[in-house]
Amino acid sequence: MTDLPGIDIIEISDFITNCYLVYDNxxxxxxxxxxxxETIIEAINKRQVKxxxxxxxxxxxxxIKAIPEVKKATGATVWIHPGDATMLTDAKANLSFYHxxxxxTEPADGFLNGGDEFEVGRFKFKVLNTPGHTPxxxxxYMPGIVFSGDALFFGSIGRTDLPGSNHRTLINGINEKLxxxxxxxxxxxxxxxxxxxxxxxxxxxxxx
Length: 208
Description:
The protein is α/β, with parallel strands linked by helices. It has a single domain (6-207), classed as Ribonuclease Z/Hydroxyacylglutathione hydrolase-like (Metallo-beta-lactamase, Chain A). Helix content is 20%, strand content 30%. It is built from five helices and 14 strands. It has helices spanning 37-47, 67-74, 86-89, 167-178, 197-203, and strands at 6-12, 17-24, 27-31, 50-55, 77-80, 110-111, 117-120, 123-129, 138-142, 145-149, 152-153, 156-157, 186-189, 195-196. Strands 1-2-3-4-5-6 form a six-stranded mixed sheet, with helices on one face. The chain has a six-stranded mixed sheet with strand order 7-8-9-10-13-14. The protein has a two-stranded antiparallel sheet with strand order 11-12. The longest helix is centred in the C-terminal third of the chain and has 12 residues, at 167-178. The two termini are 28 Å apart.
């Protein structure tokens, strides 16, 4: 297996969302801080790392709710695909309005598009466009691992019955951007347990 960065999985209990702290050589990013900011900040402090970026696979409420507190605690900048940018500032767009939360936060500090790259210590991640669950859904890949957000799960795929979602677009993105990765690639999804690309190609009923 290729040398990999440190990865802490922080399960956000209210939404059962996976937030990830990815770190190397004292540098880190937080992926999808969905809620429970104190838990996320505690994990950051425990690792004694500097979080430079908060990066989002998409803009639904269960992946963004802890942004204000984590950003304040770390000074990190917030990055999202432009297709989901309005979800940060619009409670209806991020669906929180329909869950009696009505959450909104500041606009993103920067945007990530397919083909862009960002670094975590010694490691370089590539942004993959995987829309369909949301218009601006993205995944983050480096040899050995991929953070798939709500595109691909263990034995399942993201919902496509929500505003702005599209089933065919999601399937196309999974087929073109994720299933073309090496079979041994570990998939870290937005919800649920890890899997591998090979396992999902073999057993995922939504992809057969």
